[in-house]
Amino acid sequence: MKKIFLLFLVFTFINVFSQEYHFDYSIESQTTKTKPDKEKSISTSFYDSKNKIHLHIDKYNDKMRAVIYDKDKNLRHSFKVTESKGFVTFEYTHTNDFSKHKHKDIAKDDVLEVKEIDSLQYQIVAFKNEKRNKKRFTALVTLEKSKLNYLEIGVDHAQSDEMEQKIRKFLDLNSNYILKRMQVDYSTGYSYDSSLKIKNVDFSLKLPEKLIIKEFDFIGEFQD
Prior knowledge:
The chain is mainly β. It has helices at about 5, 160-170; strands at about 15-35, 40-50, 55-60, 65-70, 75-85, 85-95, 110-120, 120-125, 135-145, 175-185, 190-210. It is built from 2 helices and 11 strands, in the order αβββββββββαββ.
């Protein structure tokens, strides 16, 4: 997966394309799961800082896929990723339309509490109720000043946007920040430590003029 940073400069596209996504940053996330078992992983994504859209790359059973989730349109575009002789090929496969799907998240009404540890470090606690006697998770977030403004909180939670907004209230409005490291402890006993490496890139991916709409199927994503 790490090789993708060295190979992304050349792309091959198939069919006639229309809509284009441009990415100006690469984000490498190195995650160490500390509980219940120790396990290390590296994931790769690319970021459009203007429209705040990610291109995520996943690997499953030695097959790689890339996805773009366009939140404004509720569309998820999938690409097959192939590495060969120093080149990377992104081939559009299909799109999932989530506009008609309602997802019920049991954590959407959690009570969030954000505390400033120092000017670059903040603690986030998600409580399961207003009594604040049951925690869902605790996260320690470390920031760094940067040219890029990137504070997306990488936790699987319905209120991740609200967490970012609460942290921004503490920050200098005349400065930009990136999320450098995050340590998360869930009440279920699952814990991990994640750090980010961010670099400038310059490339685009295009979509076909006519999208292929399919129902979402995680396992099916990796079968062709």
